[in-house]
């Protein structure tokens, strides 16, 4: 049986990160492929400028964050414990990546594994990784731009390493531009995120231990520093009241919500599967809304490089100039037609699956 070592950010305290790792392993397992997540020590030395740091810290000065501040330590302690329990029960994790003499295949990705804005980690480009078949799947440069790549002191090392890979799978057009224009890589394949590839069809039926199937609610999935503007909150509360729906935040605390749920990954999936509406400004919030065929409202922030790219791939219309209020109104007034979306997704899944299996076959 073929074996794949996976290098991805599965240790992040983020539902999207851990569930895309889970999806990768489950999909490979369905193909008759054995896989292990490779351990790592991550450098998180950010390239934020002084202006960026000030802007980020200023975002914390809102009523929601101040209310949450006293609870944050306990919240994250509980979240970390539930994530560790999930990893123990549902992920196959191996030793540190550089301790293996050789693994048949090394898959780097998915997610922002090529990003160095939030820390340079050369092993995510294959450095000191021992395999004759190293490839990327749905890799993303994240907040890295062509301009920042050109100025980066380690750019030559990155160029050398990615050109040694047996295959390049990327997730968004910004990543392809960097690969093509800065790394001289023209033969690359666009992939869907593992969550979209796997689909979670089995899990949305089986993961129903928390009783969300019997509840009526609007699901909020947004980081604590976001979705706290008075105008946004006022409109969302009005929607909840007018439709007799509870407003529930999952994963992150928002003091204005009716309920905040520090969900483990299984409950997270269950809550998306059973929500009446979803309001989110995150990539994986969008991804889970799509695979669960939910009526959703997406608010685009600094993650436009990945969310707008996905909407375009699935032919889902989105006007960047629409106000948040209009977007929320549209969520109620216009039902999303998932027939064409699911057909488009099926084609993208087929292409991504073919790429992934073809890369693994090179490890024979």
CATH architecture assignment name of the largest domain = 3-Layer(aba) Sandwich
Major beta sheet summary: 5 strands, parallel
- Unreliable residue runs: none
- What is the helix content? 40-55%
Radius of gyration: 20 Å
What is the first-to-last residue Cα distance?
A: 10 Å
Quaternary structure: single chain
Strand order of the largest sheet: 3-2-1-4-5
Order of helices and strands: EHEHHEEEHHEHEHHEHEEHEHEHHH
Beta-strand content estimate = 5-15%
Number of domains: 2
What is the CATH C level class of the largest domain, in words? Alpha Beta
Please name the CATH topology of the largest domain: Rossmann fold
Give the overall shape: globular
Q: What structural class is derived from the secondary structure elements?
A: alpha/beta
Q: What's the total count of β strands?
A: 12
Average pLDDT level: 89
Helical stretch tally: 14
Give an overview of the whole structure.
The protein has 364 residues and is α/β, with parallel strands linked by helices. The chain has 14 helices and twelve strands. It folds into two domains: 211 residues, Rossmann fold, CATH 3.40.50; 142 residues, Glycogen Phosphorylase B (Rossmann fold, 3-Layer(aba) Sandwich), CATH 3.40.50. The mean pLDDT is 89.
